[in-house]
Design a protein that fits this description.
The chain is elongated and about 115 Å long. It folds into 3 domains: about 5-55 and about 325-465, no CATH class; about 60-105 and about 285-320, Alpha-Beta Plaits; about 110-285, no CATH class. It contains 17 helices and 13 strands. The strands form 3 sheets. The protein has a 6-stranded mixed barrel. Strands 4-12-1-13 form a 4-stranded antiparallel β-sheet. It is α+β, with helices and mostly antiparallel strands. The chain is about 50% helix and about 20% strand.
Length: about 475
């Protein structure tokens, strides 16, 4: 029999018992809907986590530090594919910038400073907090979605962005440990934005007298290793307030106030690495850590390998999050298994429907075989009927699953808005999931039709014709 004839015959047979076949198809649709709803939840959560972490700048950043040469009193041997240990200085910074797929390289400037601030109607008081420098690229971090005020107006301007809990401390508001990351009220933010805060810090100044006493060939090195510490003051204008620190404080002590990167470098604040230079006078200026940002998170591993070969230690969030993908894979597997249980139950309905169809159409099957229909033709008829129910049920299930996901997502966002939380999209139905769900529904239906088709093909045409 031709495929067109089989499709037409299967469609006619399905229309003869509309109620029974519709209920069976609906059962398949419910099973597919549960499968789509659960898998779309897993895919949506993974997509949400990836998007949020991607926007935070964690996945595309590498922290580079000098490789330790000694530990526990013994010298460490370099690992395979690693070059000899080198100082993390300006030369290293320039070499990193030349690596393919590297977008920018900047130092991790993070120091403890003394701040003077007078809240409206109060006397000036002293506060201590960690100050960190932010490059212009940090503006795309999701933390700044809730920014009160504005971002820095330039790369070398005396402006500051503070964290909300530090803002409460400046205003003399008692901290709330449960809601320490909440935004300030409009009135509270208005008392801080546009105000000036005075930063007192230790500036590193080269010692010109030491440079004169040394030969010209050594003057550059001595300028770096012979320096004085001078106390300086700098007024900063508070232009923004963020609820939490960008980068999730993964790069050291939690900072509470931020300044532009270029401005921070111009202050020449003394760093812990400067104290290390006193013990190693031949090295010149060096950094405790450099941040290397790559174009795409997929290029992080290659850039890390290139930096390690130059003799430095690296760390990226990908090193600590290799289990995230494994977690979501296992989650999707379990959600798929539980969602498939309903589809397995629906397959029993297909078997029952087709077996009942055999009993009702025994005489018809006998006539078909008597006029020359083969066992394969009879099997094909029932396979086409099972496949048609799988196709219709799968399509219906995808639509139901999408609607269920939208409704639950809407309800969850309404609840989150009442809790003053940012709405998110937890459900996501990609095209590959739609195709996979419909295809899986057809395959399950065909498997369920194996027994009824084989039973129909085994009917004796003589006994079938005598059946009343």
């Amino acid at each position: 029999m031709k495929a067109y004839d089989l499709v037409e015959l299967a469609g006619r047979n399905l229309r003869e018992s509309v109620l029974r076949n519709s209920l069976t198809t609906l059962g398949i649709g419910v099973g597919v809907a549960s499968l789509v709803a659960m898998l779309s939840l897993g895919v949506g959560l993974q997509r949400l986590a990836t998007r949020q972490l991607g926007r935070s700048g964690l996945f595309d950043s590498i922290v580079v530090t000098p490789r330790q040469e000694f530990r526990g009193g013994r010298r460490l041997q370099p690992e395979p594919n690693q070059g000899p240990a080198k100082p993390l200085d300006d030369a290293a910074r320039k070499s990193f910038d030349q690596i393919q797929n590297v977008v920018e390289v900047y130092p991790d400037i993070r120091v403890v400073g003394e701040f003077r601030f007078a809240a409206p109607g109060k006397i000036e008081e002293t506060y201590f907090a960690t100050t960190a420098a932010l490059p212009p690229s940090s503006r795309r971090s999701d933390v700044f979605d809730d920014l009160q005020g504005r971002f820095f107006s330039g790369e070398n301007v005396p402006e500051a962005i503070i964290v909300s809990d530090f803002g409460r401390e400046l205003l003399g508001i008692a901290p709330d440990p449960v809601q320490s990351d909440d935004k300030l009220t409009s009135a509270q933010a208005g008392q801080l934005l546009g105000q000036e805060i005075t930063l007192r810090y230790a500036q590193r100044e080269s010692n010109p007298a030491a440079a004169v006493a040394k030969p010209a060939a050594d003057s550059e090195t001595e300028d770096q290793t012979n320096f004085s510490v001078v106390r300086k003051e700098q007024k900063l204008k508070v232009v923004g307030i963020v609820p939490t620190e960008p980068y999730g404080a993964m790069r050291g002590n939690r900072a509470r106030i931020f300044v532009p990167m270029e401005f921070a470098e111009s202050l020449n604040v003394i760093q812990p690495a400067d104290l290390r230079q006193i013990m190693r006078p031949g090295q010149g200026k060096s950094y405790l850590a450099l941040i290397v940002r790559v174009a795409r998170s997929g290029e992080v591993s290659g850039v890390e390998d290139a930096i390690r070969k130059e003799g430095f230690a690296t760390f990226s969030i990908l090193d600590a999050s290799k289990g995230i993908a494994r977690f979501f894979t296992v989650l999707d597997l379990f959600l798929g298994i539980f969602g498939s249980l309903a589809l397995a139950v629906a397959s029993l309905g297909i078997i029952n429907t087709l077996v009942m169809a055999i009993l009702e159409r025994r005489r018809e099957i006998g006539i078909m075989k008597a006029v020359g229909a083969s066992n394969g033709d009879v099997k094909s008829i029932f396979f086409y009927e099972a496949g048609a129910m799988g196709l219709l049920g799968g399509s219906l299930g995808v639509a139901l699953g999408w609607i269920i996901g939208r409704v639950i997502n809407l309800g969850a966002n309404i609840y989150m808005e009442r809790q003053q939380l940012k709405p998110e999209n937890f459900w996501y139905v990609p095209w590959w999931l739609v195709a996979a769900a419909v295809g899986f529904s057809i395959v399950v239906s065909l498997i369920a039709g194996l027994y009824p088709a084989a039973r129909a093909a085994r009917l004796d045409p003589v006994l079938a014709l005598r059946h009343e």
